[in-house]
Amino acid sequence: MYRRFIDSGGAAGRWNLSPHHLGRKxxxxxxxxxxxxxxxxxxxxxxxxxxxxxxxxxxxLGVSQPALWxxxxxxxxxxxxxxxxxxx
Length: 88
Hints:
88 residues; mainly alpha
């Protein structure tokens, strides 16, 4: 650690540490988010299970329904409301 300090201009008192890209990389890239948005514009009545299957088949991306729900919520998309009389 001190060697990095000395090699990076330690006399000037600067730390030039290389940036770390820690953590998991997101599965939902911007291209996949655009594809999801396009599917929902084309077929607005798709369920999360159907979206999950489309992602598995067409984008070769296996994700859980809760993960899909979180991404849809972050994209600003909300589920279609189901009224009590429609459920019965």
